[in-house]
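Methods — Computational structure assignment.
A single polypeptide chain was analysed. Its primary sequence is given first, followed by the predicted tertiary structure written as structure tokens.
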Amino acid sequence: MREIKFRGKRKDTGEWVEGSLLKIDDRCFIIPKTFFDCLRDENYIKFLAIYNWHEIIPEIVGQYTGLKDKNGKEIYEGDIITTDGEIFAEIYWEESASGWMFRDIITGNIYVVFQGTIPESYMIVGNIFDNPELLEVEK
């Protein structure tokens, strides 16, 4: 069973944050894990509810795939990966297949990402939000 969490860019600082996703109308928030670690202390909850919910840009939210790259870095939806500089691919969720996929940016080929089977040579080189130029690799 994989860990369910999200990452998003804070509206106020542009910093990436990870945690649980909360949507309220057209606003999105990331609630850090520390909030849930402190639920037993009611006084601390009031403090965390005010200061630790980070409003994020709704269009820039990615879910954790449950996979890690060769350096142990968590792979999120929207990440761009490479394998020894040969394949550049974008990770995304395909609703019709109910699974994580990656699209080879150079060939356009689409591959299913089976849980726990991402090749050991894969490494995150950026993401589609911070590094859109990686999507324009010469063909």
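Note: The radius of gyration is 17 Å.
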